[in-house]
Amino acid sequence: MSNKYEDVIIGLEVHIQITNLKTKLFCSCNADYRGEDPNLYTCPICLGLPGSLPVVNKKAIKFATRLALALGCKINDSTYFFRKNYFYPDLPKNFQISQYNKAGGRAIGDGGNITIKLDGKKKNLRLNRIHLEEDPARLVHKGSIATSPYTLVDYNRSGVCLIEIVSDPVMNSPEEAREYLKQLKSIVQYTEISDLDLEGSCRVDANISIKGHARSEVKNINSFKEVERALKWEIQRQKNLLKRGKELIQETRHWDEKRRVTIGLRTKEFEKDYRYFPEQDLVPIEITRDFIDQVKKELPEMPNARSKRFQKDYQLSEFDSEILVLDKDIADFFEKGVKSEKSFGPDEYKQYCNWLMGDISRWLNENNNVIKETKLTPKHLVDLIKLVNEGKITGKIAKTFVNEMMKGTTISEIVKKSGKSRIADKNKITKIVKEVIKENPDIVKDYQKNPRALEALIGICMQKTKGQLDPEITKQLMQKHITEITN
Ligand SMILES: [Zn+2]
């Protein structure tokens, strides 16, 4: 760990929407609002009309329990909801139904942890709790919030189920926060409760302080990717102020994604300002041992266990398998692919893993895409690896196939279309080698003093054939013919 951040303390509150719930947390309105016209999915409950009564979505409790178990939390046997009071246009009731871990209240799960690995070192990051709450409505501004002439409200999002994962202030650098979120995202993906690739499905509030000074809370960082950037900026801001002899104040700041700065919103409200009190319209929820056991039984294999299994079943290294299992879709793809080809063994498993982690991940990053949205199939990659191993194309040519493969073109079609198969025919290669020797007398002359000129000649052969020549055979033949001439 670099000393740059040794006095930094970071705690994260991550809000994730449980997007795999069909309905909202306290009413039966459709929760899948993305791409829909505004204010389509509303009812008296999520509009906060007087006299309407909320009813808890049982599946939300199940999903929250599942995540709590996956994160190693202690599940509380009884839990109830609180009203968090504040006045804002996205909150028609003027309070948000949430959970509270004081005044007799308990969150659905306490404790838990997420293990990260940074610079080869493992670190166990403690969680404080996870709890359920309702999402407020969505406010829509024209351009930026500061300059928009109006605010529109879309109640489709009002009442959608959120789980908040609160860490202890245990992170010491933006990089640790990044790794924490990476692992959290992976665990959420494996629990199959939510798709965090959906826009707006996760929001992060970050508490940041320099040891011994007041903390600021940076609100509404709207994607995991932005968190590291926002933290770096905010830490620098605080350090600059301290350097100039100023003192920091406890405040809430807003991350402006476009300008990439944090802006002071208000001096931090204190917990008492929210006047938390129990939500009397909802009964306490009893969580029985049987219920927990049932949820535990249905818990899918988690990334840690899967990584260990991959090391055993496919003889992958710890390093490879830990990266491979991080994205469940990629790990599923891997298993489907290698299991479909009986002739594959440890060497091919490693090759398959390398393709996924290397060229294919790079393509996904560059195109801002995820594997399940592409037309690449596990079989494509099996075919490609076989083609290389049978010596029909070189590894270098195989790399040029990736773009077409991602669009769903089969390997045989790509080979046919590009005419790029490997040339291993000695007669064909000899012809090209002789041509190149004849056309480049200067380099041939140079070879007598400088053996490295051979590489230049081979390079020209490759250029002429767009890299299709077998490099080993070309080298042998070039050496043979050039020696014949120069002797
Ligand atoms: Zn509703």
Care to describe what's here?
The protein has 487 residues and is of the alpha+beta class. 40% of the residues lie in helices and 19% in strands. The chain contains 16 helices and 17 strands. The longest helix is centred in the last third of the chain and has 21 residues, at 346-366. It is elongated and about 100 Å long. The mean pLDDT is 91. The structure holds zinc ion (ZN). Zinc ion binds next to loops.
Helical segment count: 16
Q: What is the CA-atom radius of gyration, in angstroms?
A: 29 Å
Distance between the termini: 60 Å
Low-confidence stretches: none
Outline the biggest β-sheet.
Answer: 10 strands, mixed
By DSSP, the count of extended strands is: 17
Mean pLDDT: 91
List the helices and strands and how they pair.
Layout: E1 8-17, H1 58-70, E2 74-75, E3 78-79, E4 82-85, E5 95-98, E6 109-110, E7 113-118, E8 121-134, E9 138-141, E10 151-154, E11 161-167, H2 174-191, E12 202-210, E13 216-221, H3 224-243, E14 251-256, E15 261-267, E16 277-278, E17 285-286, H4 289-298, H5 303-314, H6 318-326, H7 328-340, H8 346-366, H9 378-389, H10 395-399, H11 402-406, H12 411-418, H13 426-439, H14 441-449, H15 453-464, H16 471-486
Parallel strand pairs: 13-14
Antiparallel strand pairs: 1-11, 1-12, 2-6, 3-17, 4-5, 4-16, 6-8, 7-8, 8-11, 9-10, 12-13, 14-15
Helix pairs in contact: 1-4, 2-3, 5-6, 6-8, 7-8, 7-9, 13-15, 13-16, 14-15, 15-16
This protein binds zinc ion.
Zinc ion binds at residues 24, 27, 29, 42-43, 45-46, 159.
